[in-house]
Each structure stands twice: as C-alpha cells, then as structure tokens.
C-alpha cells in the first residue's frame, strides 16, 4: 500500500507554478490556470497539512553568492561509524546533499566551494577529519547541465 498523499492535476498545476515562482499570488495563479483563487488557497493549505508541500524556500544563484565550484564526492565509511559520518557531513554548511547509496561507496555528497583551493582545503581539513571516513572519490563538476527538483 502506498502511504503517499494523492495529488490530482489541479494540485500538480499549482505545484508546478510555485516551483517556478514561490511568491506568485493566488490571483496570478488563478489567471494563469483558470482555477479560482479560493480553490488555490484551499488546495495549498491542504497540501501543507498533508505534507505534500515540505517548505517554501529560495534558491540562490551560486555564481551570485560566490559558490561557483561544485563537487560530487563518493564516501566510503567504516561500517560501525556510518551513521556518525553521515550526521557529521550533514552538519557542514558547504554540503548541500547527503545520500546513503549502494555499491563500492556508502555515501554520495554534493559540496559547494568558492574556488578549487577552498574545495581542496575543505576536503582535507573538514571531510577527511570526520571519524569513520575511510576513502573519498572526488568529482569536480565542470558544467551544470540540469539541476532541478524531482518531477511533480
């Protein structure tokens, strides 16, 4: 049985509009969709209550904030220290994503830095200092082709 909340086409339409502009007014959404602003307001409230909408946030342009270097890092951890390592990595502000994965490596993390030198220092001084981290494979991103949220 699937415990995820059901969303219909109206909910999906509202979510797609908000993904493009989370500050869009109910009136503007109504004009773009033909759905009444009262219905949109009700649907948003219901989606928040049901956990369909996790949060409203802003995405900063990495170039504008100076974080122009992105790295994907695969991490091998000691089995007995896996949970501690992923918790420690998650606490680092430069790490935007942490995933437990299957395969030769145990974790997949995404790291942001302002330069290659800063990335190198961060890896050597912060990441390698975490207890339980045994090996890393660093992949520096040279072009961001697509970066998006999951489909709606």
Automatic annotation (TrEMBL):
The lineage of its organism: Archaea, Methanobacteriati, Methanobacteriota, Stenosarchaea group, Methanomicrobia. One of its GO terms (biological process) is response to amino acid. One of its GO terms (cellular component) is cytosol. Keywords: DNA-binding, Transcription, Transcription regulation. Residues 7-68 form the HTH asnC-type domain. SUPFAM superfamilies: Dimeric alpha+beta barrel (SSF54909), Winged helix' DNA-binding domain (SSF46785). InterPro entries: ArsR-like_HTH, AsnC-type_HTH_dom, Dimeric_a/b-barrel, Tscrpt_reg_AsnC-like, Tscrpt_reg_AsnC/Lrp_C, Tscrpt_reg_HTH_AsnC-type_CS, WH-like_DNA-bd_sf, WH_DNA-bd_sf. GO terms for molecular function: sequence-specific DNA binding. It comes from the Archaea. This is Transcription regulator (Lrp/AsnC family).
């Amino acid at each position: 049985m699937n415990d995820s909340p059901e969303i219909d086409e109206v909910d999906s339409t509202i979510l797609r509009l908000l993904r493009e502009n989370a500050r869009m007014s109910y009136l503007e959404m109504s004009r773009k969709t033909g759905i009444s602003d009262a219905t949109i307001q009700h649907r948003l409230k219901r989606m928040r209550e049901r956990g369909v909408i996790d949060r409203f946030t802003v995405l900063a342009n990495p170039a504008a904030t100076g974080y122009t270097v992105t790295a994907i890092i695969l991490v091998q951890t000691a089995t007995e220290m896996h949970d501690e390592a992923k918790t420690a990595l998650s606490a680092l502000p430069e790490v935007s994503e942490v995933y437990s994965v299957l395969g030769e490596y145990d974790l997949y993390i995404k790291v942001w830095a302002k330069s290659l030198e800063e990335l190198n220092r961060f890896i050597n001084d912060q990441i390698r200092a975490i207890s339980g981290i045994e090996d890393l494979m660093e992949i520096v991103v040279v072009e961001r082709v697509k970066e998006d949220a999951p489909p709606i």
